[in-house]
UniProtKB/TrEMBL annotation:
Its EC number is 3.2.2.23, 4.2.99.18. This is Formamidopyrimidine-DNA glycosylase. Belongs to the FPG family. GO terms for biological process: base-excision repair. It catalyses: Hydrolysis of DNA containing ring-opened 7-methylguanine residues, releasing 2,6-diamino-4-hydroxy-5-(N-methyl)formamidopyrimidine. GO terms for molecular function: 8-oxo-7,8-dihydroguanine DNA N-glycosylase activity; class I DNA-(apurinic or apyrimidinic site) endonuclease activity; damaged DNA binding; zinc ion binding. Residues 2-99 form the Formamidopyrimidine-DNA glycosylase catalytic domain. InterPro entries: FPG_cat, FPG_N, H2TH_FPG, Ribosomal_uS13-like_H2TH.
Length: 267
């Protein structure tokens, strides 16, 4: 699943390489990916890209004509000039530019890639309801406390709730909770001051460090870089890098019982 550090690196790469280029067309192989039925992708033909930025886990391609918002969903991605990573997913859309090409892929069993042609990115419902972004330097402790204090919701689910924290998904929620030494099934409302302090520090540090580490990596190498950097996510059965204990699976994620649950193995 694309998450804020990798999508940020992708947006910065595409902004650097595609800004000021004109869009020749937006070619769509999977018509269901277009979510704004009242708007046509042909509106973007001939428009010049004025900037590309990340909004949560979405790409916002601004042009002089309209915005093309790309929702990457659970398995969407973008590649530049045909650079293909091992096991690359099928291409569902192409954006030929003056002298370059952006291809949009989707590796999911169900369609997750979505395209929106809008006058303002905030017209996309998922963007309009995004919560504050912990990867941003503007994210504050007040925003964190407002989202966490009193919430009767398990921490892993809360971290992945886009209306609460924009950009966090399955992998980074595991990493954040491991660094914070907190159980994925603990309820936010039950945290004491020290635990909330650890969670805030882990949330901001893990994401911002990852943004810094991914910066400058080409799009086709970003997924591999993310996997290689994981401490616990995707590493069930391996040794915890902190305590040496065995990392266990829980649902679609992973955790260290010694570091996070006082030795208890979650059902």
């Amino acid at each position: 699943m694309p998450e804020s550090p990798e999508v940020q690196a992708l947006a910065e790469f595409l902004d650097e390489h595609a800004r000021a280029r004109s869009i020749e067309a937006v070619e769509l192989d999977e018509f269901r990916a277009l979510k704004t039925r009242g708007r046509s992708l042909s509106e973007l033909a001939g428009a010049t890209i004025t900037g590309i930025r990340r909004r949560g886990k979405h790409l916002d391609v601004a042009t002089g004509a309209a915005h093309l918002v790309i929702s990457l969903g659970r398995a969407g991605w973008a590649r530049w000039n045909g650079e293909v990573a091992p096991g690359e997913a099928p291409v569902l859309a192409r954006i030929p530019l003056a002298g370059a090409l952006i291809e949009l892929t989707d590796a999911g069993q169900w369609l997750s890639l979505g395209l929106f042609v809008v006058d303002d990115a905030a017209e996309v419902p998922a963007i309009a309801k995004l919560g504050p972004d912990p990867a941003s330097p503007d994210f504050t402790r007040e925003q964190f406390d407002s989202a966490v204090v009193g919430r009767r919701k398990q921490l892993k689910a809360l971290l992945q709730e886009q209306e609460t924290f924009a950009g966090v998904g399955n992998a980074y929620s595991d990493e954040i909770l491991h660094v914070a030494r907190l159980s994925p099934v603990a309820h936010a409302a039950a945290l004491d001051d020290g635990e909330r302090n650890r969670l805030f520090a882990a949330l901001t540090t893990v994401l911002r460090d990852a943004v810094h580490a991914r910066r400058g990596i080409p799009p086709h190498e970003l997924k591999a870089a993310k996997v290689a950097a994981m401490r616990v996510h995707g590493r069930g059965g391996q040794a915890c890098p902190v305590c040496g204990g065995t990392i266990l699976d829980h649902g679609t994620g992973q955790y260290c019982p010694t570091c996070q649950t006082g030795g208890e193995q979650l059902a």
